[in-house]
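Let us practice reading a record.
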Amino acid sequence: MGKNYIDIENDRGELLRYRKHVNGRGLVAHGAKVHPSALVEAGAYVEPGVQIAAGAHVGRGVWVESDAVIGPEAEIQAHAHIGAGAAIGARARIGVRTQVGREARVAVGALIGDDETIGEREAVATDPRGLRLAA
């Protein structure tokens, strides 16, 4: 049986240990909290301090930076990037290759399309069709 973790050096020369999440085999850093029912697909990276709630789905190639929070049943599609300290509300959907900036806030149930960018500290809410609402 192979080992269930991998050590990776970050850009500051620090060695971080990642374990393979039981549901999806994505890499979760020591210090991150991921609910066992959350799906973290292979090729995804979850950094220290991240919290991922029950039923959330983190797709292939997603990078969730430190201290971000992913709400219950939120869906982060493939190759998206969630910035440090960002918060994704319950049942929100983040599209393929979408960039969510540092400390940004995505409202409960928001629908963010593919290839979009949400700026640093920006707060976004949408109607059920995905049209952005005024802040």
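A brief commentary: Residues 5-124 form a domain with the UDP N-Acetylglucosamine Acyltransferase; domain 1 fold (CATH 2.160.10.10).
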